[in-house]
Structures are given as structure tokens and as C-alpha cells.
Fold these 3 entries.
Entry 1:
Amino acid sequence: MLEVHRVHDGYIPVCSGEKANLRVVDFDWAGESGSVRYPLQRNQEIAWPGGPGERIMARHDRDLVKGWWHKQFSLEFQASD
């Protein structure tokens, strides 16, 4: 997604074990990097990389997944560039 400058535009849930439970929703936030914005009201338990109403950038996807990965799986996230 970073290569095509799109955000929230292609996550597919994958479960490879009984304890894996990672969900990505709200595809209505998808679009061109920098042209879509975070909603004003969001889940406050998530450490969002951008504030309410701010533009969503491509790097935010990686930041979100990195945080979720560590929290859900207690493993270090390694992106495949």
C-alpha cells in the first residue's frame, strides 16, 4: 500500500491459530494517502497515529499494524517491504 500511496485499502484478515484475533474494519476510511481523514470520534483505547480529523497518511497503516501486532501476539513486527 505504501508503494501505491493508498491507506486502509487491502487488509485481509488471516487467522493461523486459535488465539490470533486481529480485525481491521472501517474501510470507508480508505483512499488516497493524505486525502482521507480520521473520523472525529474513534475508539479511545487505540493509539491512533493521527488525531481526530487529521489526514491519514500511508505510514499510519504500518504504525497501526506495528502496535496491534505487538499487543495481540507479543512479537516484534517485521514489515516486508
Entry 2:
Amino acid sequence: MPKKNKEEAVQELTWRAAEYQFMEKSVGWYWFVIIAAIVLIFLAVLGRNFFFGVFVVLATAVVIFFGRKRPQVLDFKLSDKGVAIGENVFYDYDRLEGFMILEKPGRLDEIVLKKKAAINPFLKLPIDAKSGKDAEIILQGHLPPIQYEESLLDVVSDWFGF
């Protein structure tokens, strides 16, 4: 819930959401993963590449495991101090470069935060559209807006239901 002062400026916003949008996988999805793994294992045998075959088996197990895993529900908080995710993760605004509200029709919107990091610089927080407007007001007081374009990995993971 947003907390407002007398001037009606949003000072703090808290909300609860799943850490990512879970998509139920159909039986066809599992068949696709298994058939793709069998084809890759066959190619590994043809190429006499034992390590690739082992990698395919392990990767298939990981994909199936994470495909079935349900997201954890987390508490998110934006305040004058920074961004809190759950009980153990906190980013103060000095560790962030900018933000963007990414609207996703038919799904939860996302707050995209750019961290001051070379590896994995973007952090995405799910949020409903109404709260996204309040979040934008808070973040504008601390961070500049950025342009964010979804990467190929984002598009592929959405397509595969991750």
C-alpha cells in the first residue's frame, strides 16, 4: 500500500507478488523437451562426444525441474532508502543507474531496474499496472528513466514459458 504525506506525494510503496509469472506446462511441452534431448543425445553419440551427451542429460533434468517449480511469493518495497526484495535483498539507489516500467498486456507489468554491474545488469520486479504508476512516482525522485529493450533471451524464455 502506498503511504502518502499531506501533499499526496507517494513516499513508500509495498506490494506482494510471485517472483516471476508461472506458466503451467502442458504434456506437449514435456514431450518437446524430451524429444529435443533425445535428438541431441543421438547427435552426441554420432559425434562420439560423451561430455556433450552428459551435458544434454543434465540440462534436460534442470529444464524439467525449473519448468515444474512454482515461484516464491515475495514482499517488495520501494522507499526513500531504496528497493527491498523479500527479507534479504536490498538495493539502495546508489547501486542503481535507472529504471523503466515495462508494460505487458495480459500479464503483470515489470519494473526494470538497471544495476551498476557488468554481468546481469537488469533486475525485473513484477507489479500490477495501478501500483506501477505509484512506483514510477517514487523512482523518478531517485533514478533517471532508461530505455530497455527485451533481449533475445527474454523473448525465448517467455516463449518457452519461463
Entry 3:
Amino acid sequence: MPQERQSKADGFRKKARLLLFGLCLDLLKLSGVILHKHENQPGELVPVTPTALVVPRQVESDQHLIDLWLHGRSRHTQRAYRADAARFLDAVLKPLHHVTLGDLQQFAGQLVESGLEPSSVYRSMSAIKSLFAFGHRLGYLPFDVARPLRLPALREQLAGRILEEADVVKMIALESMPRNRAMLLTLYTGGFRVAELCSLKWSDLQSRDKAGQITVFGKGGKTRTVLMPEAVWRHLQSLRGEAGDDAPVFRSRKGGHLDESQVWRIVRKAAKRAGIEKEVSCHWLRHAHASHALDRGAPIHLVQATLGHSSVATTGKYLHARPTESSSSYLLTDI
């Protein structure tokens, strides 16, 4: 019996050693060290240098990086960001992988000294930071030198860009051209961005009882559906005539989609006609939609969904821009 138990124990230890040896071989293979028998010394195991992993080159040049960076963005964003990148490269006169943090800080200072609006400086430098971060993620740039760059704090100007309801009504009422009036109504009631408005086709509009809805392909590739009031829907439908589904809702004189600059001119003329002295842009009607809807009791999440804001915090800025209450009303002021 003792010999039988000893024999079983020896067999168990042998199996355990073989199992352990097999596990060690697997680990060596996983780590890239391949073992094989040497030709001149049978039985001896020697390591072989592992084959290097070849990663395909992602980017060929600075211009190629910019093209990859802009891929999938809206036409408006591509145009603005490409101009920002070109202006930066013209200023530094060196390849991106030679740019230093000092170069970036100097360029930011040049933009400020050129008299550019603070918001434009902020947007331009944000774009450059994004480009460097993208290049670093792809392995094209060894370091993200723009990461430590501090962007200037922006002064909140939203409150000064919100039109009163009476001003918006006057802008629309004094517009005599049916297409332009429908355009102003759509910008305001839909809260659309100018690029979203210009790209609308009749296939994006669907009737719902007496009113309708518009499907918008918005910023960042996000799709949202906006319900339109009956009165606005009637104005829109009066423009269609015999136009097909792929025809633009707001046509230019040549029959194509209106250009964004054309819409901007129409909005500015409508504002001046209404006696508004400020330089009103299309986006001011979007601001007006958000502020007026919240003032009239619309739930903030509904306004967020209608405007296509990615965060409710963005929508919440309109509440802070025109507060209806303040702790100042609780203070003793009759002094």
C-alpha cells in the first residue's frame, strides 16, 4: 500500500510538472518569445527575436491630417476650421511637428492684436487645439503641445443677443416677400441653425393633421424632428407649387438651395426694416426661440430637444441670460 500511494503521488507530481511546463510555454508565446530546438544542440531551447508589429502609417502630411480632421463635419465647420488652420500655418511657417507651445501662444496674441472679436479668437484657438489633439491621437504628432494652452475666458454676451418678442413679430410682419417671410417664421419657430434651414428639402417635411413636422439633419450628424404650428405650416406649403421631394424648400433665383450668406442678408434687412439698430444675425432668431419659449413656461428638456442641444446646460444659459427672479428683490433698497 505505501508503495502504491508513493507511485500515485509520483504520477501526480509528473502530471503537475507537465501542466506547469505547458503553461510556461503558452506564456512565453503570448509574450512574443518563441522557443524552438537549436540545430547543433538537440534538446536545447533558445529564444528567437519576436517579429515587430507593423502599424500602417495613418497620415502622410500636415494637409492630409487637416483633411482627416475635418472629415464628416458640416460644410460650414469645414470652411471655418480650414481657414483657421491655414492662417495658423501661414503665421508659424513650420511643419506641425516642429510647433512649440510658445508658437501657439504667440499666434493667439497676434489674433487678439489684429482686432478680431474675442469669440472669434476663442473659436480659432479651440480649432487649433483640436487639430493638435487629433494629430497626437493618430500618432502623427509625438506630443500634443497645444494641450497646456489656456484659452481666454469669454465674456457672456447672450443677453444682448436676445430679441424682444415684439421685435421678432415686427421683423416678420414687415417682410412682404412670401419666401422670406416663411423663412423668418421657420428660423424663429423651429429654432433652426442657418445651415439646417438652407439644406431643407421637401422630403424633410411631413404633414400631421393641419400642421406638420420637419426632420433636421443637424450639427454633429444628429437628427431631430421639430413640430411646426399650423400657421407656419401653411406659409411653407404655399411655397411648394409643383416642386418635387428633392427640391429645396427655400429656392434661390437659379432654383437651387439658398446660400447661407443670402439668408444672413435677408435677416439683417428684416431687422433694419423693423428699426432694430443691432447687427442681428440668423442665430439671434434661434436665441429668441429658446428665451421666449422658456419665458412662456416651456419645459427646459423640450426646448433642448427642439434646438438639438447636446447638453441641458447649454439650454439653461437662456434662463440665466434673462432671469425672472433675483435675490436682489429681497433686499432693502429704499435707502
